[in-house]
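Lab notebook page, bench 4
Experiment: in silico fold of construct C2
Operator: M.H.
Input chain length: 406 residues
Purpose: comparison with the prior construct
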Amino acid sequence: MNTDFDILIIGGGMVGASLAIALRDLPLRVGLVEAVAFESSAQPSYDDRTLALSYGSKRIFDSLGVWNRLEARGATPIHHIHISDRGRFGFARLHREDAGVEALGWVVENRALGQALKAALAEVKNLVILCPATMETVEFGDVVQVTVRRGERVEQLNARLVVAADGGRSLLRDQAGIAVKRTDYGQTALVTNVTPEKPHAHTAYERFTESGPLAFLPMSAGRCAVVWSLPPDKVERLLALDDVAFLAALQERFGMRLGHLLKVGRRAAYPLAYTEVAEHVRPRLVLIGNAAHTVHPVAGQGFNLGLRDVAVLAESLAAARRDGRDPGDLAVLSRYANARKRDVFAISTFTNSLVRVFSNDIGTLSLVRNLGLVAVDLLPPAKRALLRLSMGLAGRLPRLARGLPL
């Protein structure tokens, strides 16, 4: 079979770049197509937002040789998590000692992760990066034929497997005709960072309110990343406020656990929706990351879920290579899809349940959820179960998450 690439990844954001790095030691020809230059301020994956990386994601990045670069760029550990329901009695506290780890997770800036991934990509010998370049058309047959535009030049590339890593509005997914169910949460995430009066002490706060969850995550230089989920009309009003009025509104919602909020950074807003696709794989096609699933940012699980897609897919492709199998064969890809079903279902159910149960002010439900928080705080088995799920350590872990080579 005469092809340009064994694996052609469409989308060089955080998930697509991570997959290219994960395949670095395999005897495969890999291509990566990305529309926006990595160093551009318009690069959507590497903007001013932050990510909460789970303990399992740290292990994967460690295996990929990316973690040391992230540590050097200010990854901030989470030692404690405080969960509360605003105006109610329930709360739960999770500590790194409960799980016997050095941190429950880490907070990294998207821009810092982008720089770390770019540096790691430069060392991948079996990779060809086409950037800036955009995919225009795709046709599936004995090989995948992908038309790519690079400036004024249009090229046709052939691949044995094409990977859709081009985000929640995936063009590759749409051109393949894969059905997508999109459920609007009726919320928009307002993201920023603030400097509080008191040290954050490496504590992440998840505060549920009747209008949506509010997260404060510890960052470098004493700052906290803020992810505030609200109805769109309220977000518009908050974005229109000056810094003093905005900090007052945020203070009223969060409370005084960190003292007065002294300074706020740039604010941005992103609409929130849950998406699920009818098919994660087809012959010669696999969807990963946001192209395959998007979830609510509550509990910070979205990117971690996508990174586990990367780890399992890389392991599946390594096994196929050892067995002399075609990487685009449906049987190979179906094994990958089956391996991901349980994790995707568990995280989707977990995050959707949190949003439904906590984003309202129904009396009976408020009592039940607060008793649940107290149970998590007091009962070690419940606490361990929640920790394993949120840390990305539930179920069978891929080799990269166990520190093992592919």
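Observations: DSSP finds twelve helices and 20 strands in the chain. The longest strand covers residues 180-196.
Next step: discuss at group meeting.
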